[in-house]
Fold each of these.
Amino acid sequence: MSESNDRADGARADGRKILLQCTPAEIEQLVAAAGGKKFQAKSVRRWVLERGVDDFNKMSDLSKDVAKKLSESCVAVENRVRESRKAPDGTVKLLLELRDGSTIETVWMHGGSDVSGGGTVCISTQVGCAMACKFCASGMNGVVRNLDTYEILEQLSRARQVAPFGRIVVMGIGEPALNLSNVLAALDEVTSPDGLNISARKITISTIGIPEKMKGFLKTEKPYSLAISLHAPNDALRRELIPTAGKVTIRELLMFANHYFKQTGREVTFEYVLLRKVNDRMAQERELAGVLRGARACVNLIPYNPIPGSPYGRPDEETCREFREVLRSCGVVATIRWSKGVEADAACGQLRIARLEAPAAKKI
Ligand code: SAH
C-alpha cells in the first residue's frame, strides 16, 4: 500500500474535513465559517452527491470567496480517479484511489433506466475481498479493509460524473454482508429525500450468503432487493468454488429465501455464474432445477466473464440458453445476465488486480 496522508486520529494530515464524512450540522458549520449562509450547506452536499461536482469553485451558487475558503477547510471528494475505461457498449469502469492509496472499482452501465433516466451503478464495499471465490478477481489478494460510509457514497459522486443513474447494485469488490453497517448507512443516504432520493426497490445487494448476517439484514426491514451467490447445484461443488462457504449449506440458503419471502413478499435472486464444463452440464441443470423447484426464488445465470490467468472459461451462448430453458421447463424462473463492459475489464475486481500486478501502469 502506498503512503498515507492521514494523522493517527484518522483525520487528514492537512486538517481538512471530507465533505461526505461530515454530518449536515458539520457542513452548516463549515459553510458558515467560510462566510456562506447556513442554508447553502444542503446545496453544497447536493452538488457533490447528486451532481458529482468535486470542486467548490464550480458550485455556481457559492461566491468565489466562500468557495475558496471552503476549499481550504474541506475536500469535496476525497478519492481520485486513477483510471477510467469505456467499453464499446458504453460501460465505464472507474479505478478509484482512496486516501490510503488503496484502490477500488466503480462501474457505470447503461440500463435500468426506466423513469429515472441514466443507468445503473455497481459499487464496491471493501478493498479486496475475503471470500476467495475461485473464479473471481476481487478475492485474489484477500481483503485489505472495509470501506467507510463516505467512501461508498463518494463512488456514487464519481459515477455521476460519468452520467445520471437510477439504479444501484452492490455487486462490486467486497462482501457487503461483512461491512453491513457502513453499507446500510450509505444506502440510507441514497434513499433519503435529502440524499439521492433513489427508491430502495432500485437497489440490489449481492451477498455470498452468510446466514446470520442476512438475518440481521432482514431485521432492518430495508426493502432492498437481495441476491445470493449460489454458483452450484450441490454443496460439494459450491464449497469447491467458494472455499469460504464453510458449513453453510444450499438447503440453509433456500430456507432463508423462503423465510425472506414470507416476511417481505419479495423473492431472493440466486446468482449462478456459468463456468464451462464446471457447473454448466446437463446433469447439473437438472440438479439445480430439482433444488430450486418450489422455492420462492429466481435464478440469474451469469455467463462467466473470463479473467486472465483463470482456469475457468465461459460456456457458449447456446449452452447458456439451454441451461436457462431446462430450468424454465422445470418451473424455475430463470434469466441470463449477459455481461456488460467485458472490454473494460468489467468483471469484479479485474482492473484493480491488473493494476496491482502491473505497478508500472500506475502512473496513468
Ligand atoms: N460478494 C458478493 C458480491 C460479488 S460480485 C457476492 O458474492 O455476491 C456479484 C456477482 O458477480 C457474484 O455472484 C460473483 O460471484 C459474480 N462474479 C464475480 N466474478 C465474476 C466473473 N469474472 N464473471 C461473472 N461473474 C462474476
Amino acid sequence: MKITEARVIVTCPGRNFVTLKIVTDEGIYGLGDATLNGRELSVVSYLQDHVAPCLIGRDPQQIEDIWQYLYRGAYWRRGPVTMTAIAAVDTALWDLKGKIANLPLYQLLGGRSRTGVLVYGHANGADLSSTIDEVGRYREMGYKAIRAQSGIPGLDSTYGVSKDRMFYEPADNDLPTENFWSTSKYLDFVPKLFEKLRDAYGPEPHFLHDVHHRLTPLEAAQLGKMLEPYRMFWLEDTVPAENQEGFRLIRQHTTTPLAVGEVFNTIWDCKTLLQEQLVDYIRTTVVHAGGITHLRRIADLAGLHHIRTGSHGATDLSPVCMGAALHFDTWVPNFGIQEYMRHTEETDEVFPHDYRFEDGFLYCGESPGHGVDIDETLAEKYPYQRAFLPVNRLEDGTMWNW
Ligand code: KDG
Ligand code: MG
C-alpha cells in the first residue's frame, strides 16, 4: 500500500479547523486534525509545502518510521507548528491502520482499560450567582466533573466566560481583542466562588478551574492553599510553564492537585514536571503533542510518577482530535479525565462521528480507526476566516499572559 495524496482541508463551520486527509492507492484514507488556534495557516503551509511531498509513495503502515522521519528530519525540532503538523500525519496514519486492520483505534493500542471516559464540561457565568446556576445546569446534563469560570468583579472580561451559554469561543475575527487583568481582584474572588459551589452542591461533584497562565509561582501557591478546603479535582495552568522548575515552589506549599500542559508540544516540555512529580495531571493532547505516537510516550513517563492524563479538549480541537483522544483515553492505563467542550451543530455536521456523551462520560465508537469523518462538500461551504485569540494587559497597560 502506498500514499498517493496528502490533502489539507480548511473549513470554518463557526470556527476554523484544519484537517489532513491521507489517501492511499487502495482508496482507504485516514484523517488527522491539524488545527492550531489563531495560527491555522502556518500549519497548512507546513503540511502542504514541506510534508505532503515527502509522504507520497510511502507505506502508510510505517507510522513510527514516518514520525521519526518528520521529527528528526526537520532538523528544526519541536514547536507548535511542526508538532501539530506531525500530529496530523500521525493521527491520519493511525486512523488508516485501524481501517486496514478493521479495528477501532483503541484495540490497536492495546484494548480497553475502561468502559467510558470521564469528561468535564465548562460552566461559566458573568458573575458569582450565574456561575453557580450554570454549574447546576451542567449537573442536570449529567456531568460528574465541572470546570467553573466566572467574571471577576471589577474586570470587564476574563478568560473562560462565554457570550454563548454552551459554546466558548475566545478567538475573534479580524484582530486580537484586548482584555485587562488584575491578579489581586482575581485572588480575592476565586476562593469565594468555590466556597459557594461546595455550599450549593455538596461534596460529590468534581470541580476544576483554569487560571490560564496568569499567576506567579508564589501567587499560585497562595491560591492553591486557599482552595484546599474545597477539594478541587484540579487547578490548571496556574503559571506559564516555560520554566518547569517554577512548579517546585507551588508544589511545596499546596496539596491542591495541579494540571498543566495544553500548550506543550513534546515530552521535553514536561520532562522535569513529570520526573519530579510536580503536577498531578498532564494535559497534552493528540493534535498539539505529536499525535498518538508521541502522546503515548508522554503518558508512559507520567505513569511512572503517579501522574494521570487530562487531555485538552476545547472546541478549537476538532472532532477528529476528539475522536482520536477518546480512543487513547479508552486505552491509556493512567487516564485521569478528558476535557469536553461541545462543538456546534454545524461543526458536528461537517465532521460526522460515532462518539457519544452519556451521563458524564464519553464513549468512543467501534468503527475502524478513530471513527470521525469529514463531509468535504459541506466543509467547502464554510471558507476560512482569519481569527485571533485575545491578548491581555495589566490594568496599567503592561502586556500580560492571556
Ligand atoms: O486555543 C486556546 C484554547 O484552547 C484554550 O484557551 C482553552 O485553556 C483552555 C482550556 O482549558 O480548554
Ligand atoms: Mg486551559
